[in-house]
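Design review, sub-item: ligand-bound model
Attendees: FS, YL, KQ
YL presented the inputs for the coenzyme A complex:
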Amino acid sequence: MNKAIYPGSFDPITYGHLDIIDRCSKIYDKLIVGVIKDSNNKKFLFDEFERKEMIESVLNKFQNVEVKIFDSLLIDFAVQENVKIIVRGLRALSDFEYEFQMALMNRKLNDEISTIFMMPHEKYIHISSSLIKEVISLGGNVKDYAPELIINNVKNKI
Ligand code: COA
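KQ shared the predicted structure:
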């Protein structure tokens, strides 16, 4: 089976992430959306279970996508899931350096697993979860960037 992992923090999921998931679901037999439990660099608004549940609630149209929480090296999660492909979205040039470092480190850790980059639709290349949360918290309209359910969850949480 042709499987891939799309990992991230998804705090919360946006249409930009869903765009990548949509593209991957047409290429791979199975896509695992990997939700990182904790991060050294980020304080999450939603815990890992809330982030997973929110992703699942906006994924109903995809039959071949599963959401899993992981709390380890990404490469170890890939081995555990028997997956050889990691998909990362590349939005702008500014993403490149970080993604390049991560892909090469992951390759050094396990050369059997490759990272593939995919560009989301251009209407989503300027957004991020933090930006969405900031605009919502200040009363702005982000309905073009995230599903209504996600926007409401952010509003309630804030
Ligand atoms: N559309 C909209 N926004 C997008 C996007 C897209 N297609 N792709 C990425 N983003 C945004 C995210 O919303 C996120 O925004 P935020 O910083 O405001 O929250 C930002 O870009 C970063 O994206 P994300 O994909 O969540 O990456 P991350 O850096 O938070 O997490 C992991 C990356 C989880 C894959 C990485 O930390 C990891 O592998 N951790 C496991 C430990 C490990 O193996 N470490 C060694 C790695 S070499």
